Batch of 2 targets.
Target 1
Amino acid sequence: MKKLSFLIQIVVFCCLSLYIQAQSLSPQVVASGGTVLTAGGYSLAYTVGETATATLSSGSNILTQGFHQPDLQTLVKMLAKVYLQGPFNGATMNTSLQTAPSVFPLAQPYGGAPWNYNGAENLLSVPANAVDWLFVELRDASFNPVAGGKRAVLLLSDGTLRDVDGTAGATFTGAVPGNYYIIVRHRNHLAVMSAAQITLPNALAYDFTTAAAQAFGPNQQKALTGGAFGLYAGDFNADGVITVADFNFFSANAALINVYNDADANLDKQITVADFNLYQPNASTIGIQQVRY
């Protein structure tokens, strides 16, 4: 009888081990007490209860009994200001994507190629002054991507950024405070990188709009009316260069109306000659190596 009981325990353990290897588990718990605290660039999540005790382990997976224990994460805030040439009206940027019927997506649109970003940023409602979504990245001194250094955020009509939680700027979860280059991407404008490393978190927004030289490399921003500077319109396939491939993308989508489409350079929901007129003078503009896909 003891042998049978021992065999049953072995079988159960093996089954659990296989199950653990086949699953990707994240901490989830129902508890009577606990909270999430955020301060000074850190986030601390915890529940009240007994100490967690490991009971089974296999590879990089551990099955525990007890309550979810403290989970400390760093939060780095980045403030920036940027203009897009397409919707720029001489003072601010138009918010035509929200004109009824609105085509402004509630979920971030950078999940597909070439960005392949799997972030879950989404909205319950769109702020009235939101122009579109941006995709921002942090790079280290050698221009390499950093852990936790990607985020989809909203671009507001005055050029500032807003996170989906309503706070100013972009909040990077998992990145640590330090010096970074900032890359700003849009789905149909040429991406830019800051001219120098920025110390994050930053209380004063890094302002790309004041001079072309605020972007790394020569000829990386378009001179706009009023002495401002912004991202070149017309990189419809977002690969970091404006070429005939972008014209071909535009042609394939011409004459569409009331759409959220990457060929819509001026973000007015229509694919017309106005979008071609933005693309044509910018053809052959090449982004720096660090922003190309």
Target 2
Amino acid sequence: MKSPAFIKRVQGFALVCVAIFVGTSSIDALAQGVRFPAASPAASLKQTVGITDISVVYSRPGVKGRDIWGKVVAYNELWRSGANLSTMLEVSDDVKIEGQKVPAGKYSIFLIPVQQGDWTLVVNKAVNLAGTSGYKQEEDVFRAKVKPVAQATSTEWLEYTINDLTDSSATLALAWEKVRIPIKIEIATSELAFSKARTAIAASQSTNSGFVSYALQTNSNLEEAMKVVDASIAIQENYRNQVLKARLLEKMSKKADAIKLLEKAITLGKAAKNPPFDLAENEKILAAWKSGK
């Protein structure tokens, strides 16, 4: 049987262990909610070029008196173009980067520095890689040569900028120490803007059809309704807008034109994979118009 003194010593030791555990756990929990300066702080950059948003998410290592090129960043090896996670580039629309087509989306950008000559820019489909770990060359969107530019003054903290803005182009540049890497981005902004406008108009066809149908029903605002349906036809001719225009023409006492257009609409309807629900009805209307009724 253990003596009372021994039991007290064991109990005391256990209490000390519990206190240490609880204290350590409390410190850990507290530390999790405290931020400390990062060696390479996180940064982000966003710029609209024309109607396209371009953003870069990266980390900024410092020079800190070190020899960067060939030492901190090895020559002839893939580099994350920043620190910590791979640098991420996001474009909201299709663009060209150094003349190469890049669809809208998120990408990692890498560089392969060399001591003399052009560096290699690598745009890769994988994002949030731990540096270059997990990088696969088969996931490259493209590789292109880019020319490093010597800077007279040193950039202490690695920095990305977007400059040389026009409505359809910009230069994304990385600067660190006494080296700057410009990357040309081009966007077909005019073509893109009109394409998006057409898509928006096409997406509102149900509203347009409602406007025209109500004009026909009330025999009012026919000229305005004609402009609406013509705008729809300018984007894409289809069974529905041809029928609506034919009916407007008939309302406006242009029956010969109305007949031709309704014939065209019915031809489109019959060619459709799924014939329109009112095809037979419009065939009857066409027959009535032709008979003079």
